[in-house]
Amino acid sequence: MIVRYVRHMGHPVACVVAIDNGVVGWSKCHPKDAFSKVDAKIVAAGRAKRGTNKDLPTGRVKVYDPELGLYFESSLKKELEDLIEHVTEKSRTYNWSGNRG
């Protein structure tokens, strides 16, 4: 499984997983809940398996740019879209038989 997180001020708030070649799902923690990586992966993997008709969540996040050494404000939806694209591309070259390709 490939797992990546969207972080707000360094803390994970959303998760994107790939469970097979091009099979990707996402999850987002409710703002009133504490983020759990285990729960996030379970929800995201379930959506990858079954699909989802949920729209990507909206809102704002402060994302760290290591090249600038600064946080910048971004759309959560954009960050998830970018991460879904990245994880989907990575899943196409991943060796799903157990070894990295």
Put the structure in a nutshell.
Helix content is 32%, strand content 35%. The chain is α+β, with helices and mostly antiparallel strands and 101 residues long.
- Uncertain spans, ≥5 residues at pLDDT below 50? none
The radius of gyration computed from the alpha-carbon positions, rounded to a whole number of angstroms, is 14 Å
- Beta-strand segment tally: 5
Mean of residue pLDDT values: 93
Total number of helices? 2
Give the terminus-to-terminus CA distance: 13 Å
* Basic shape: globular
Strand content: 25-35%
Structural class: alpha+beta
SSE pattern, N- to C-terminal: EEEHEEH
Notes on the protein architecture:
The structure is a single chain. By secondary structure, the protein is α+β, with helices and mostly antiparallel strands. The chain is built from 2 helices and 5 strands, in the order E-E-E-H-E-E-H. The strands form 2 sheets. A 3-stranded antiparallel sheet has the order 1-2-3, with helices on both faces. Strands 4-5 form a two-stranded antiparallel ribbon. It is globular, with a radius of gyration of 14 Å. The mean pLDDT is 93.
Which structural traits does this protein have?
globular, 101 residues, 3-stranded antiparallel sheet, 35% strand
Please write out the topology:
Layout: E1 2-8, E2 11-20, E3 23-28, H1 37-50, E4 60-65, E5 70-75, H2 76-93
Antiparallel strand pairs: 1-2, 2-3, 4-5
